[in-house]
Design goal:
The protein is an alpha+beta fold and 75 residues long. It is built from 2 helices and 3 strands. It has a 3-stranded mixed sheet.
C-alpha cells in the first residue's frame, strides 16, 4: 500500500515540476507580435526537443488563453 502511494506522490511531483517549468518558460519567452497584436510563446530556433517537450501544455495554454506558439523569431 505504501509503495503505491509513493508512486502516486512521485508522479504528482513530476507533473507539478513539468507544469512549473512550462509556466516559467512561457513567462520568459512570451512576446506580442506587432503585426497582429497577439501574444506568442517563442521557442528558440533549433530547440526541437524543447518544443516537443512542452507541446502538450502549449495546446492547453492556447485553448485556455489564446496564446499561440512560434519556433524562432518572427520576421
Amino acid at each position: 500500500m505504501a509503495r503505491s502511494r509513493r508512486g502516486w506522490i512521485i508522479a504528482g511531483v513530476v507533473i507539478a515540476v513539468y507544469c512549473v517549468a512550462y509556466v516559467g518558460f512561457r513567462v520568459s519567452r512570451t512576446e506580442v507580435w506587432e503585426r497582429d497584436g497577439e501574444a506568442y510563446v517563442i521557442y528558440p530556433a533549433g530547440a526541437t526537443a524543447l518544443y516537443y517537450l512542452f507541446r502538450p501544455l502549449s495546446y492547453a495554454d492556447a485553448a485556455l488563453t489564446g496564446t499561440q506558439t512560434h519556433v524562432g523569431p518572427h520576421r
